[in-house]
Amino acid sequence: MFEEFPKWYEISMHVSSSITIPINIFGLIMIAFFSKEQMKNYRYYLLFHQICSMLSDIIINTGTVPVIYSPHAIGSPHGWMTEIFRSLLGMEHSTWLQTEIVFQSSLTTAMSVELLFFYRYQVILPQSHPWKLSKLSKLLTISIYHLAWMFLISISFHNIMQDDQEIVKDQFRRDHPDLAFFVEDKNSLIVVTEVNLNALIFLIVSFTRIGSGLIICCILILLSRYSLDNMMISARTRNMHLNLIRILCYQASIPLAAFYIPILCILTPQLFKIHHTFNLALVSFVIVSFHTFFGTFSLLYFNRPWNVSKKPPRSGQSVTVFSSEKQTR
């Protein structure tokens, strides 16, 4: 039998935050103050991504410190946000709000990754291209896309919440007397007791959001490659853009793997009711807590903002990109 609240897990999460938060701050400083001039506007996209990652890290590692009592859809937070929100909103609403914040912060971090690929595609397009968006159009497109997903996730999650927690907790005690201590925690929250239509909708929306993000990144990569193949540019410029896209893929793949693989290890027992997976869920969360560390490390390694070019471009030298239509005129 395991403890109601494992202290080793709490200690592991705090040790993780003591490592990841300084690394994330170091990454912010390097991007903000030591970026190469050649990075131009790209560093602002990197900065936004780094800020989202750091906030998500703080929320998970110290703010909520979530415990999932796998394979049951029961969880409880144990971070500093718990006491603050509980005093303001009450017990049930506090845990619900913290769960919502974890979802939304993770979604925003995922969107910031997609934004990097979107920027890489837009910077390739010439000014005359019909898909070349202005700054205002980019802002509106990204905002509408992200807010729409935030709304869908929030509504679908709200629909699966059990309204009266005391009733469902009493029912859980009767159905699982040997696991009654799962719901003895005053901060515990039972999300769903049985698979129903609302639960299926939430799962479909969640997995669609994850899948759509990966699909969008792949489509942007293919569109970037197609645009480079149909533009009259030098082989050197084309290879430079391809190399930047390749670097971005390497950079993004490391933290995404460190996040999604453990999350799948948490969700799989929930979906198939695989028992004796409580410790697996905790270990998976500890691994998730390090994903921003891997993200910052890969960002700094592949972009190397401190590596200032020793051979600056000559005065007046620039790289001009022409579309095939303009060349034929």
UniProtKB/TrEMBL annotation:
Keywords: Membrane, Transmembrane, Transmembrane helix
InterPro entries with a match to the protein in the record: 7TM_GPCR_serpentine_rcpt_Srh
Superkingdom assignment: Eukaryota
TM spans (from-to): 12-34, 46-69, 101-119, 139-161, 199-223, 244-272, 278-302
UniProt-listed Pfam families: 7TM_GPCR_Srh
Coiled coil feature spans: none
Name of the protein: Uncharacterized protein
Lineage: Eukaryota, Metazoa, Ecdysozoa, Nematoda, Chromadorea
